Every structure is written in structure tokens, then in C-alpha cells.
Amino acid sequence: MPLLLQPVRAGGNPEGCGHVFHAHILLYIHTVLCDVYILYQSGELLPEGEVKAHPVRGWLCFGDAGRSYPHEEAHLYRSRTDPTEVVAFVDYARVKKIKRGGLRIEGQQQHGYREYWRQVWWCIPVATEEPAIGRPFASTQGSRR
């Protein structure tokens, strides 16, 4: 499945996309169904076996949150029409690598008032909404930190 990332103009809304998020409109680049492997928990790197055993499937939305301090956010939603987040979003997100059929997103998750923990997602686009368990994991050997 090809991964298409293309910029969206502020105020643009391709395919009727854009989510209202805490009274802000998330202007994201593109939405894609992904299996997301969460590499950190509470700011600590998880063992590779635990990461591989618990992929999370959802619709990845990545882009500018449209706030007064511009930065990107990565959100994983239940569906393209349901704004319920499957996991906590990644703030100050950056795509650090596109490799082996997936992409690595690095950023941070808010833990408390002005406290952030490091977070890294390994995202593998999928074509169907079947369960992620049992699906081969595209290893990120040597690049997990």
C-alpha cells in the first residue's frame, strides 16, 4: 500500500478531512490505516518482545494542530469518522524515518502540567481493518533509540 503524504493548506480540507480536537482544528497531512507499535511507556524504552506483541490499529493522522505555537501532532483514531483516540497522541511529532514499509514518528506525550515523556511510534500502513495480532513486525533493529 503506497503511503501518500502531501501538505495541506491552512483552511484546506481534502476529502472532508480535519478533526476538531479540544476546540482546535487538526489540519493533518493524510490519514492512513496503520498498525502502530509503541516503543516507549512512561518515557522508558519497552523490550522489543513486548512492543511486537501489542500493536495498536487505527487511523493515523499527522500534521499541524493549527495552534498559536505551530508544531505537528500524531493522532491514532478509531476510524476516519470517529474522533475517539485509540492511544494518547504524540505532541511535537516528527517523521524521523521512512523505511521497510513503515515510518518512525518521534515526539513526546504530556504526563502532567508541563511534564513530557519521550514517545516513539513505528507505523506500518495496512490495507484492511483485520486484527494486527500475528502480522509480521518490520523490525527497526538498531534504530529503536
Question: Could you explain the architecture of this structure?
Answer:
The protein is built from one helix and nine strands. With 145 residues, the chain is mainly beta. The two termini are 27 Å apart.
Number of strands: 9
Low-confidence stretches: 1-28, 139-145
Radius of gyration using CA atoms only: 15 Å
Give the topology string: H per helix, E per strand: EEEEHEEEEE
- Count, helices: 1
Task: Determine the N-to-C terminus distance.
Answer: 27 Å
Specify the structural class.
mainly beta
Write the layout of secondary structure elements.
Blueprint (H helix, E strand, L loop, with lengths): L18 E3 L2 E15 L1 E2 L2 E2 L2 H6 L2 E9 L7 E6 L12 E10 L2 E11 L2 E11 L20
Antiparallel strand pairs: 1-2, 2-5, 2-9, 3-4, 5-6, 6-7, 7-8, 8-9
Short synopsis of the structure:
With 145 residues, the chain is mainly beta.
Quickly list its features.
disordered C terminus, six-stranded antiparallel beta barrel, 48% strand, 145 residues, disordered N terminus, globular, 9 strands, 1 helix, two-stranded antiparallel ribbon, mainly beta
